[in-house]
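Protocol check, entry for the methods section draft. Step 1: assemble the input record (protein sequence plus ligand SMILES). Step 2: submit for complex structure prediction. Step 3: store the structure tokens unaltered in the notebook. Ligand used here: zinc ion. Step 1 record:
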Amino acid sequence: MAAAARPVVSGGAGRSTPLSEPELQHLRFLRRLLALPRSTPAATILAEAGQPPLHARWLRQAARLWNSLVTAPEGSMPRLFVQAAAAVAVDCADVPPQRQPWAAQLAHSLRAVGLTFEPLHMDKISPDSAQQATLRLHLARVTQETPAHTRLRHYFCDVRPECCSLDGYGRPPYVTEVRERRCRRGLTELRTGMHWGAEEQGRRTGTPREQRVCPHCPALDGPGGIEDTRHILFVCPLYAAERERWPELFHEFLGLPPASVPLSAFFQQSNTELAALAAACRKKARDAVSPQ
Ligand SMILES: [Zn+2]
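Step 3, stored output:
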């Protein structure tokens, strides 16, 4: 029984350690399900799916297992088992977490996400609290440790600031409102920051950010600058016809400098129209690079 519990409680500790194979499999499954680009950051994949990290689910299941054991009748095998597990969990603070008895690993995992737990007390654990505390810590790390001009900063701070809190975390409506994956591909790319523009293409080739300038502006008498999501949506003359085709998407933001347009508000408009705009812009750029 302890062997069965061990994989459940492992992974609930801090996330400075590399992801385990089950966590990588979980991310690969979600990424393919949502048709996200291969280089999508793990936190973005989870947020687009509205899923907590897998280790949050493990901790929730571990709490349920613990509760079933400590509420078993006095003298029963489950009760004797958990009492023995709690007893051997004492005085192992100097042992590496992965080598501790499973009850000590559970305590370590709960403390790592800010919850108080003492195995010998035989108290029940709130499964919801365990999962939410883990997700809260995950989101705090994502938003606090993300440098400027990264895909994560773009997604969590500019596009979806609401999902940095537990109340706002969840699958974004566009995933279900634009069900055909090929129809939402352009929108997905602009939202996640992994778009067709020079900012992202230069990131993949290691080009310094200041050199990731728009290749279209010089020939179109455009202002130039780094070809990021804002440049594509609000600045570049390459997409002038697309802006005129969906004027209602830009009406609210007319007169605002591109850097001041709240991307979160822009992307909360009609998802079908946003997806159509993004698809048209994506095709325009590809045709411009490779004229038919
Ligand atoms: Zn341009």
